[in-house]
Amino acid sequence: MLFWKVPRYEFRYPKSPLATLLGCAMRRKVVDGEEINTFENALSRYLGVRHVLLTPSGRMAFYLIMKAMGIEPGDEVILPAFTFPAIPNMCHIAGVKSVFVDVNIHTLNIDPSLVEDAISSRTKAVVVNHMFGEPADVGAISDICKKHNIDIIEDCAHALGSEYMGRKTGTFGKASLFSFSMTKNINTLGGGFIATDEDVIIERVKTELSRYKPPNRLELLRRAIKFEYLRMITSKPFFSLLIFPLIRRRRLAEGTNMLDEADSYEHKLMDGLPEECKTRFSNYQAVMGIEQLKRIDDYIDARNRSAALMRKILGQGDMGFQHGLPGSKSALQSFPVMSRNKESLATRLVMSGIDFRETDMRNCAAMGLFGKKACPNAERVEDSIIYLPIFGRHNSSYMRRLRNLVNRT
Questions:
Q1: Beta strands 175-179 and 151-155, pairing class
Q2: Among the listed ranges 214-218, 253-257, 307-311, 339-343, which one has the minimum average pLDDT value?
Q3: Which member of 4, 91, 162, 210 has the lowest number of beta carbons within 10 Å of its beta carbon?
């Protein structure tokens, strides 16, 4: 039915987070419990790595990896220019210089042809980000890193379940980081993990995490309530009748979206780690993760089928897509499209009954927070990108709306 509007999110945890939290509380297993080890072991088997360690967040996983690898103040780390600003911020906190490299305009990942020129005598690692779940050309970058005897850190915050040449992303570098935040393919209300085959790295990270405080039960309750609230307001009747009319009115009157403001992340330099970052992963979150990991491949396959149909429909319009490498499989954490007239596209989406999301990625080379460097592709992507909703199930109403959108071009 075209009456139903299309929300930007799909909240896919099959149970109620509040009910799961209550169940853990009744067993006295909210903070600590055997599910933490169970989840780590399941992730290790899924990826095919020797070690997995759960962390407070994806960005903290990156910080802990750098420290465990012995990357010190004054060292340099190469990053894609188009990335989440929290990553270079973690470099700043660690006293490490971020050296930005432009992205490939088609894959939106770091351009291997530009990496070698960015290497100096102080370079300790290249961060390979699989943007939106689309694998980067980690093979080409591995060849460059071996030549110069430097390490790869894989940023798999979007990429749990992605594959490059038949092998899971997160298994090519010295270590890799993953995220379980609200919009990821596994959502545990925050958190992340480190994957590595290196005994020394995992032991150093374990030692550091042992100093962190246990998770706060009230904070976990707050996150569960937020999840239930977001799931409620994006349900078909609630979203279509109450939320979307407000979104449409605001977009047409002011060119803004109130949900973007709720999603916004304040980008500022941090000189030290906030205390709330130094919190261990909870057993409650592990329980949520175990349930979702069982179905992740089916979920990703379903999203890829939806994406193929969306590309077929939208390919008749004026939008550009992110392109995958031959032999790769995307985890499809988001469905980005690029338009030369983003404001016009935004208006057409709202008029077609579709909510969307502005990017939280940035051309970090142009922000001024971490120095400045010309990266024209990263600038072009930031200026033109929008995330369309993508679902793990067929949504015929959404596909009809996309056809209407193309017809409005």
A1: parallel
A2: 253-257
A3: 210
